[in-house]
Amino acid sequence: MTGTGMAERSEVTWPMAPKPERLALAVAMVDDWVTSRLVPGVSLAVAWRGETVLAHAAGKVSAGGGGPVAPETRYPVTSLTKPVTAAAVMALIERGDLYLDEPVRRWLPEFATPTSEAARRQITARELLCHVAGLPKDDPDGPALFAREAPFAALVESAAGVPLAGPPGQRVIYSNVGYWVLGGLVAAAGRAPFAEVATGVVLQPSGLAGSTFTPADDEVPSLARRYGPDRTSNTAYGRRLGSPGGGLFATASDMARFAGAFAHAAATSSRAGGVSGASVRMMTTDQTATAAVPLPAPNPHPLPATPRRGDRPLPGGIPGMREWDACPWAFGWEVRGDKRDHWTGDLTSPDTICHIGQSGCLVWADPRSGLSLAVLANRDLGSGWATGGRPEHSPGAVDSPARWARLSDIVASSV
Length: 415
Hints:
This protein is of the alpha+beta class. The chain contains 11 helices and 11 strands. The longest helix is centred in the middle third of the chain and has 17 residues, at 252-268.
């Protein structure tokens, strides 16, 4: 301790640099994904101690006559956007524009009307950031809104009216709905369009020059095309929408360095992503155990007393994909914890932060090893090609191997 009572910054002893022969195995694996026609294209980046040590690309930006993928190719990274949105929320909190425990209804009155559930009226950004607000995964009206190219404000308004799927503070329910609401908070508190605020307070301070919410029209031929049921990001509408839950276009190197910056900051009590060390701690450690919402009576779903910090994380996960008895989640970033059958493999540490994107993207960073990985592909996850197929996870791909976990183990073992 220093004389001021503040803890001194910890000294981190990193392992040796990644072994080239291990990274070569990772390259061979993703190359095989392309040659076997599993994915049209893929970009792989590995960073160590904040520096890119591998940037590799294979295949094409589109399955037809598209050009070759390059390390600087931007992909629609879908839900890898969420940690950026979370950082934007924390940046606004740090400058006094938001308060973590203010009810959402103060900024978005439509979120809780006088006839709304009592629980809903108490929900704050804290619960939304770590997916414990009780909101469902998706807005049932979302597809129709996208089909008619509804504006950002209409999507926020629709999300704000989606009924709760369960009582807040009881379970991790990964929620795209919640992040649309957070996007509305950022726009309202930042007094500017969400994408503009997030770019100014997160992307630019982070040096993510290869990332944008609004790629220019002349960049379209070089963008990786998304293949799957939802192809909104392939349209002019999708490229200008700026979705807070999935609207970012980014390179693999940018994503690896962004995640790696948070992991390094978590290990050294420093800044990352445009936010302070205090915010970094909340974005890299489990927040579910302290996010219970005390509900006023009468209440058909009584909650226990708010758990103390350090209690077991809440159960839950991503409905229809993976759920665990203990599902630690920070603000924005997922925390690996003790989860088994996980996309980050067997060899990453429990402190690893990560996120997946439905468009075929994964990013993780391990503060213990100093390694971070981003692998971006242009095939949606619905078939289970990346996460591994089991009847309860991906009924159409029972025999699919857990390719992401295998790749992660190769990279994690390189140091």
